[in-house]
Amino acid sequence: MLVLPPVPIVTLPLFPELDRLLLELLRSLTPADWQRPTLARQWTVKDVAAHLLDGNLRTLSMLRDGHFGEAPDDPSYAGLVAYLNRLNADWVRAARRLSPAVLVELLAQSGAEYTAYLNTLDPWGAAAFAVGWAGESESRNWFHIARDYTEKWHHQQQIRTAVGQPAPLMEPALFGPFIETMMRGLPHAYRDVAAPVGTRVRVVVNGNAGGPWELARTAGGWHLQPPGAATPAATLTLAPADAWQLFTKGLSAAGARERAQVAGDENLVLAALRMVAVMG
To answer: What are residue 114's phi and psi, to 5 degrees?
Structure first.
């Protein structure tokens, strides 16, 4: 069975629009909106905005300026996740001292510098950090940038969901690259799923910004393949809103299963329902 090489996902031109929409949204919020709870566990709208600022500043400091500050004690994937969770919590706690106006001002300045830095990277060069949730030990910069796009997209969407304005990011031009990047994690999510060679599993996200993705079991493991005409062994169909929340830990596997449509062998879709395409 032919295994196709990964096709780059072009996300870099979308960062300015994502930032424009974020700043426009944040400037429109009322004091009560800033304190609304979000899907990001215990974080409020203001906390998520602060986390987005941290992402900008951390990238500029670590990758542009070579200043890492502190390194993880444990280089394993679990150790890196624990390290990132600690950094995230420390920053958000400290940023509660900042006013919404200060946060917006800093986001506007750092967002432009962040995107300018990403534009200096060779898309095919080795990324400073691998995309661990896709099972990679080394990634190309284009995938690192696409991963960063999904971070900015889903955190902004957490804010938008909290304040009842989710529609702009669900447009095909913005949602399409987000969900395509998420789906690159499927082969790693299926790495321990046993099935005969030739078995196919299809994951469908409804809507004109979604599409079908198909996994095929080969002698070397699971790989994404172009959807075929034959009926797969199992098909999982998700609504777009459920898909982004599921893969970013905003919706549980059980909750997603209640809303999803499943055809064929239900056991074969469990790995997709448990996939997490974010760090932490």
So the answer is: -60, -50
Is residue 225 within a helix (H) or strand (E), and if so which, with residue range? strand 221-225
Q: For residue 4, is pLDDT > 80?
A: no
Pairwise CA distance, residues 151 & 40, whole Å: 12
Q: What Cα–Cα distance (Å) separates residue 175 from each residue in 35, 52, 166, 180, 225? A: 26, 18, 11, 8, 21
3-state secondary structure 227-276: CCCCCCCEEEEECHHHHHHHHCCCCCHHHHHHHCEEEECHHHHHHHHCCC
Choose which CATH entry (3.40.605.10, 3.40.50.620, 1.20.120.450, 1.20.950.20) describes domain 12-183.
1.20.120.450
CA dist., res. 164 & res. 101, Å (int):
21
**Residue 14: CB atoms within 10 Å:** 19
Model pTM?
0.94
- Per the listing, tokens 């962040």 go with 114
Cα 148 to Cα 11: distance, rounded to the nearest angstrom: 9
* pLDDT at residue 270, rounded to an integer: 97
Residue 213 and residue 182 in contact, taking contact as beta carbons nearer than 8 Å: no
Give Rg (Cα) of the chain.
Answer: 19
Give CATH 3.30.1050.10 domain extents, the chain: 186-273
Q: What backbone torsions phi and psi does residue 126 show, to the nearest 5 degrees?
A: -75, 130
Question: How does pLDDT run across 65-102, given as a tens digit for each residue?
Answer: 999 887 777 777 777 778 888 888 899 999 999 999 99
pLDDT in tens, 204-255: 999 989 999 999 999 999 999 999 888 999 999 999 999 999 999 999 999 9
